[in-house]
Write the structure tokens for this entry.
Amino acid sequence: MSGYGDRGEPEDRVEPLPGLDPEPTPRPDVPPPEVPTGKRRRFGSPWAWLIFIVGVTYFVVPLFATLEFSLRAAKRDPSTGELIKPSLAAYENTFNDPHFWSSLSYSFVIGLITIVISLLLIVPTAYWVRLKVPRMRPVVEFITLMPFVIPPVILVFGLIRIYSGPPFFLTNTPFGSDALLAGAYVVLSFPYMYRAVDTGLAAMDVRTLTEAAQSMGAGWPRIITQVIFPNIRAAILSGAFLTLAIVIGEYTIATFLVGTKPFGPYLSLLGQNRAYEPAAVSLISFAITWAAMGMLVVVGRGRGSRIQVTGAR
């Protein structure tokens, strides 16, 4: 029979390669090979724990010392007339001081004005540099880092020299002094606000988002307000809280422009006349800063719900 072998099978059938089983049979008695994962450390590296403990000690011990010192203020018992220690007399005196609330509210208002002006200047600038003129980015970064080079005392004397005479006379009125103070704080906030906004813009594909918005008929103001701002919300909050912390604690510029109205000069003046209240005010300002950082964490959790097109990393 042509085309068939002795056993009646086709001669052109494919033979299995030698040494290979065409249909391997499973062997349930042999366990699968284990992938070596290495020795798992249950509590982490001892050096990491040592660094963590040293860091916590470095930050926590001064806070406890300040708290203990603020509680040394004696409070007289109204019924017996005896002095009570420890007590919250320093905190009660601080909260009952109207200058504390007026200086804190003044600094908060100036801080909010500074944040708004900084965002209006920094966000469009950083966005335009990344989109249109990326070669100018080193120049813009250099300009925003200038407040680190120029001392605040030089800045405030320059402002007083320029704006105390004709044609401005801004230092002769309370409103003009407040405007100069806000402008000086805007300059001081440039390094922190620009770096925060630039980092937020680097985490997304600015060009793709812009082209998508333009294809739907959006103009430049709408792109910045409804596309760019929501995508860098966490970065904006980070720069805003850093700016607010700078405004609340700044002393030199505030003293020369508006005196003791802001919180920084008030805290310095309080330290010259009181013993325990400055420690209480320091802890209160520290608590306000931590509350602001907590707000940053809470608000930043909503980043996953926003529309974002990420770029290459």
